[in-house]
Amino acid sequence: MRRYCRWSMPVLAALCLAGTNARGGQIDPGLQEILDGAPDDQVFSVIAFLNEQVDLSAATRQMDVERATLQRRHEHVIVSLQGVADTTQGAVRTFLQGSVADGGVRSFEAVWIRNLFIVEATKAKIIELAAHPDVDRVYFDYEIELIEPIAVADALNSDDEEIPQAPEIGLVAIRAPEVWAMGIDGSGVLVSNMDTGVDGNHPALRDRWAGVADSRYDGHPEWAYFDPFGGRHDFPRDSNGHGTHTMGTVTGGPPGDQIGVAPGSLWIAAAPIDRGGGIPRTVADAILSFQWLADPDGNPNTNWDVPATNSNSWGVTTGHGYPPCDQTFWSYVDACEAAGVFVTFSAGNEGSSGLRRPADRATTDYNCNAVAAIDANNPNWPIASFSSRGPTNCTPDGRQAIKPDIGAPGVDVRSSLPGGGYGRLSGTSMASPHINGVAALMRQANPNISVDDMKQVMYETAVDLGNPGEDNSYGWGMVDAFEAVSRVLNANDPYACCFGDGSCSDVLPQDCRAAGGKSRFGYECGQISCPQPGACCFDDGSCEDILEANCTAPGSDWSEGDCGSADCPQPGACCFDDGTCQMLGPVACENAGGEFSGHGLSCEDAGCPQPGACCVTDDECQILGPDACRAAGGSFKGHDTTCTNACPCDKIAKLKAKCNDSGNVKVVVKIIDNSMNGQRITVDVRGTRVVTGVLGDKAKLIAGPFSGPVPVRVVDPDCTNTVTAQCP
Hints:
Elements: H1 9-15, E1 26-27, H2 29-35, E2 43-50, H3 56-65, H4 70-88, H5 90-101, E3 105-111, E4 116-122, H6 123-130, E5 135-140, H7 158-162, H8 169-173, H9 176-180, E6 190-194, H10 210-213, E7 225-226, H11 242-251, E8 266-270, H12 283-294, E9 309-312, H13 330-338, E10 342-346, E11 369-374, E12 406-409, E13 413-417, E14 421-425, H14 428-445, H15 451-461, H16 481-489, E15 495-498, E16 504-507, H17 509-514, E17 518-520, E18 534-537, E19 543-546, E20 557-559, E21 572-575, E22 581-584, H18 586-591, E23 595-599, H19 603-606, E24 612-617, E25 620-624, H20 626-631, E26 635-639, H21 648-651, E27 652-659, E28 665-671, E29 680-685, E30 688-695, E31 698-703, E32 708-716, E33 723-727
Parallel strand pairs: 1-5, 6-8, 6-9, 7-8, 9-10, 10-11, 11-12
Antiparallel strand pairs: 2-4, 2-5, 3-4, 13-14, 15-16, 15-17, 18-19, 18-20, 21-22, 21-23, 24-25, 24-26, 27-28, 28-31, 29-30, 29-32, 30-31, 32-33
């Protein structure tokens, strides 16, 4: 199964810093559906994305070239993000402030991690906001939720709890105790989770909360705990229990039980997920949490407060309003990782039904890190039946890629629960904290290793399970903490670096990345074979000899061998809605809004359909193509048709209504020709709707008896003025 490494067009729009012409933004279709039918004064919570965005990929490449430390990476990324927000948010902020004064906006908050505003406003004001020239798109603030555990076991009995337990079986399975024996236990590393909160008083965790364990937090507990809903940042708490359990797996240990992968690390936490007690949890809460994680103390020049790792045991599904491959959270994760935070997500507990979002993302080899659940209690390490499987189609061109990425213990995992106890939970929620802990061990071993290099080492050193190589159940296999840490301990030595032309050089990993290569940690060039380039056919019929991973342009296709042996498909006629034609490839044609007629077919032979009459309303006709007609909400009457007599209201010549002595009203609708013969029309006779058929060029009906004035009007099609019959 191949990986693909380019951005789709919507992602480019999300990540590129580009000057745009003044234009109105768009309302996302999901939000539009919610707004439709709502009164203008109904209030909704929305997220408004601005046009200007930081190119995070370019920022990462620049840091690679500089061999930047994590502190330098953090400073560069945060300053860039905040700078774009500071220089581009002014006009929208002024608009929102004015709208608060007139009552259209209830509240708003500016966000820099993705240059956006979180806004509570009326429907009418949301429509105005979307039309602002600095706004790109407005989305509904949907709810999010944690990935519910599969099973819960009661806490161990008091006799067991009196004696600290030996390392849990999952820790042994991933070889964490062997790493501790090397003198590496996460000391000096700050970890984090985004969950339901954490019980800061739990014996396995209380001494490790950075808010009390690190004097630099004195007077600033809000740098170590973030409550986006209630604003209670003074001390970590957890009314649900999920977050306490996951954090225990990351770092829990003495004086509590030995439950954590990296017991020497300190932790901070954000609590935007499933708070309980009827507290809503929305995308806005997660956005603010990611922003906090990227710079907890609000100072871009410091990174001691920035966590090295972050695990997320939550995700969303179609049932929450999110389609497959939903990109809502992608750019926030990218910003955190560009700033040096290793981010991982649980794959989901939906089994063969597929992965949750954003764990289904596969835009590069490393995005996003999705974790499967393995039963470490079984010596055969089977994949858990509930663990979400791939493949995913969330690739740059929609082709399948393998997911999840890696596995970890996720069945009957024993960890901390609020109130000082312990219990067992199952789910991919329990697996991703193991990966969080392994990443912390790797960061202690090599403090400045990049996020992508950490993921690559994890994948290379994983214990292969299931089908040989990467597969859609285990990913690369069970994470091996000992092998991963051993590799990165010497990551400042030269290693094999594979380049796009298939060549190899033994260079330092950071120089390999800066030169566009991929480092193979632990190997020299003589020990490996680098992937060789092949023919990449592009949509315009051209060909380039490049690596498969780089053959990622829209519509491109890769094959082994060189371009001299490849027979690339040629572009063909692309018919546009206005009847014009261009020679384009199929993907380029589709992106331009045309219809592809076939490879090699010329425009002369294509016979592109011509625009015709479009009844935009019953009495408004325009000459449009079929797609443009439908987009305008009209009815297309056929290619090359004229507007003359095309729409219903053009065809109704006269409406007559007359009342006889008995009070019965005779109604006659005169049509200009026989084109409506056999069709049905609806006539309103003093509030009563009567359906009648057209015979030839007339429609007739009799209704009554009535007395006094009787208003009559054709309502379907809604074409005529009201006439009045006077009855006795």
